[in-house]
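Run log, item B.
One chain of 166 residues. Sequence copied directly from the ordering sheet:
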Amino acid sequence: MKQKQIVSIKTQNLLYKPYTKEVVPIYHQWMLDPQILYLTASEPLTLEEELENQQSWLNDPTKHTFIIYTNDQIPIGDVNMFHHQYLEDNEAEIDVMIAEKDFRSKGYAQEAVRMMMSYGLKAFNKNTFIAKIKEDNQPSIGLFKKLGFQEIKRVKPDYRQIFDRV
């Protein structure tokens, strides 16, 4: 595994910045939303726990979290890539969350996933991506299918769908 580099990335419509302590209060507010907690299979954290989590993730070379900003510098969500030990060397898990409701269904999640796959390929030689999605999260399932992912299996008891990039 390569040494973790802290980078920011710019695409046509979005800017991706590392998950730093300055954005933790905003991220913490997002993660208080019951729908987001459910769809991301997350547990609510205190602000102090979220700060600890942020530091852990920022320094972990197997986790890459970018906060997604509009060109107007509005934070709207995050995109993540994970290098799990149980995956093949060319594989990574990927997920995306557009937390700000006014920015959903505008193509931002699709752009963010494409950016993260490109980053994974260029920086880590990852060419296969896996998304774990709750089976009732139809918008996310539709997003990943639109990006060419295919369902490869359903896992219980989490009742998540797992997609693989072809």
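Observations after the first pass:
- The radius of gyration is 15 Å.
- The chain has five helices and eight strands.
Flagged for discussion on Thursday.
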